[in-house]
Design goal:
This protein is mainly α. Among the domains are: 60 residues, Multidrug-efflux Transporter Regulator, Chain: A, Domain 2 (Orthogonal Bundle); 49 residues, no CATH class. Helices cover 61% and strands 10% of the residues. The protein has ten helices and six strands. The strands form two sheets. The protein has a three-stranded antiparallel sheet. α4 runs parallel beside α7. The radius of gyration is 23 Å and the shape is elongated.
Length: 218
């Protein structure tokens, strides 16, 4: 395994494309974790460098230093990826890793502290070192598509919380049904059938909502 790379203050600032004065200012604003101290020498590592590059990218996207500090604090308070995904649990969803700036790029101007906290509370996001992990690539792509269509991210997340409640109820209904007539070992095999029923019923419900005479009946 390669040794962990460390940088003195001047070298880190140079690699990040900022001045030493700016680096110290970021530290004072608690945007950076304290360095390792060896006497009077401060040693930084690649995590500090990644954070500095994230700060630069978010500043370019119009975020303020105060906003970036709040986002960083929200992420630091969030759960870790092992807690989010679990170990060895069955899933058909594909987690996706992003840097903070990549997440900001997906939702231009809408990655606020409030939205980030909502996504963390829902369990959509977790942290893994300098990366963010979204539990489902499909959910991330759909959320970004809805935002591009003009729906505010806050409302997308609020809708996601409501969908979660209904999805939990449907999952409970299906598992109870199967366990009355089969065994727990049969659940993974029958899982696609449950998904097909939900998809078909949602499609039919949308058909009903989109009919021209919808809402005209008593």
């Amino acid at each position: 395994m390669a040794d962990k790379r460390e940088y003195r203050t001047e070298e880190l600032a140079s690699k990040a494309g900022i001045t030493v004065r700016t680096l110290r200012f970021y530290r004072e604003r608690k945007l950076l974790a304290p360095p390792r101290r060896e006497g009077r020498i401060a040693w930084y590592d690649d995590h500090h460098l990644a954070r500095l590059r994230t700060i630069a990218a978010l500043l370019e996207r119009g975020h303020t230093l105060t906003g970036i500090a709040e986002l960083a604090d929200a992420l630091d308070q969030g759960q870790g990826v092992a807690e989010l995904i679990g170990v060895g649990g069955p899933t058909e969803e594909e987690p996706i890793r992003l840097t903070p700036e990549e997440l900001a790029a997906r939702f231009e101007g809408q990655v606020t502290t409030e939205n980030l906290a909502a996504a963390l509370d829902l369990g959509y996001l977790a942290t893994d070192g300098d990366e963010i992990v979204h539990i489902s690539r499909r959910l991330l792509d759909v959320s970004a598509a809805l935002v591009r269509e003009g729906i505010p991210l806050a409302e997308v997340l609020a809708a996601g919380a409501r969908v979660r409640e209904h999805a939990d109820a449907l999952a409970e209904l299906f598992t109870d049904l199967v366990l009355r007539h089969a065994t727990e070992e049969d659940l993974p095999r029958l899982r696609p059938l449950a998904r097909s029923v939900v998809e078909a019923e949602l499609s039919l419900a949308l058909d009903r909502r989109l009919r021209p005479d919808h809402g005209q009946r008593s």
